[in-house]
Design brief:
Layout lengths: L1 E11 L15 E5 L5 H14 L7 H17 L6 E6 L2 E7 L15 E2 L8 H14 L5 E7 L3 H6 L6 E8 L12
Helix pairs in contact: 1-2
Length: about 180
């Protein structure tokens, strides 16, 4: 089943900020996720996708694949492929990343921010840190796929030089990180 209404963003690694410095108050923290947080991360991801109506028509096929990607990231002891933003002890945002050089989608989930913490700059912060982490895999260009009408496509992904092109893919493919241009 081919699906329309998607955008594939690309970022040139050479144009990304050279530092991962960020300033947030001491009650917030940005770090690599631990294996023990897998269930919390999955809850944040599920909640974020459920809150946006732009995902409704593809959720039944997309969410099991995202769940599978999260399971695989933590099953292979690759804790470094997921970032979390915390407020105290609470995980309020997450981003699952594919660091492989040849990935067609480095931002597997994209920055997922819980509803009550949106519009505070956390999406841009998590995007920047996700891109910097993905760049460690050696790719010269990084990619992220999202719905064209999503808040991420309108407000977050254009940051740091993100360039969008229309995108189609087969929702029947088994891996979110290896979607291909149709």
């Amino acid at each position: 089943m081919k699906s329309n209404g998607w955008s594939r963003f690309s970022w040139e690694v050479k144009d990304l900020p050279q530092t991962s410095r960020y300033i947030i108050t001491e009650t917030y923290g940005l770090r690599t996720a631990s294996r023990q947080e897998k269930a919390l991360i999955q809850q944040v991801i599920n909640s974020c996708f459920a809150q946006e109506s732009c995902w409704n028509d593809v959720a039944s096929k997309l969410m099991p694949r995202l769940h599978q990607e999260v399971e695989e990231k933590f099953a292979h002891h690759r804790e470094g492929d997921c970032l979390v933003l915390t407020h105290g002890n609470r995980v309020i945002a997450a981003s699952v990343i594919d660091t492989s050089r040849s990935s067609d989608n480095h931002l597997i989930t994209g920055p997922c921010i819980t509803v009550e913490y949106r519009n505070r700059g956390f999406g841009a912060l998590l995007l920047k840190e996700s891109l910097l982490m993905a760049a460690q895999g050696g790719a010269e260009v990084l990619f992220g796929i999202t719905r064209t009408n999503s808040p991420a496509a309108r407000f977050v992904y254009p940051k740091y030089g993100g360039v969008s092109v229309p995108y189609e893919f087969d929702l029947g493919q088994s891996s979110v990180s290896h979607w291909r241009v149709a």
